[in-house]
Amino acid sequence: MKASQVNDMTVDQLNDELVKLKKEQFNLRFQAASGQLENTARVRQVRRDIARVKTVARQKSAAAKA
């Protein structure tokens, strides 16, 4: 997911995306633990996407309060 895509989302869309990414991260952890994970780089991508979504959501909520 690109930063420009995240910036175009609303706060509600960001929250929905965050829930989706958290579920994917949970599933990836299970796959890694059971030895079924094929694309190990996806763990890193999801972790960074979560951070990206959280950062933009925080910026947008701070801008709304100001």
Automatic annotation (TrEMBL):
Q: What UniProt keywords are attached to this protein's entry?
A: Ribonucleoprotein, Ribosomal protein
What SUPFAM superfamilies does this protein map onto? Answer: Ribosomal protein L29 (L29p)
GO annotation (BP), single: translation
User: Which CDD domains does the annotation name?
Assistant: Ribosomal_L29_HIP
Origin superkingdom? Bacteria
| Keyword Ribosomal protein set for record | yes
* Pfam family for this entry, one: Ribosomal_L29
Q: Does the keyword rRNA-binding apply?
A: no
Which Gene Ontology cellular component terms are annotated?
cytosolic large ribosomal subunit
One GO MF term on file is: structural constituent of ribosome
Q: Which family does it belong to?
A: Belongs to the universal ribosomal protein uL29 family.
PANTHER family registered for this protein in UniProt: 60S RIBOSOMAL PROTEIN L35/50S RIBOSOMAL PROTEIN L29, LARGE RIBOSOMAL SUBUNIT PROTEIN UL29C
- What this protein is called in its record is Large ribosomal subunit protein uL29
Q: Which organism is it from?
A: Methyloceanibacter caenitepidi
Source organism lineage?
Bacteria, Pseudomonadati, Pseudomonadota, Alphaproteobacteria, Hyphomicrobiales
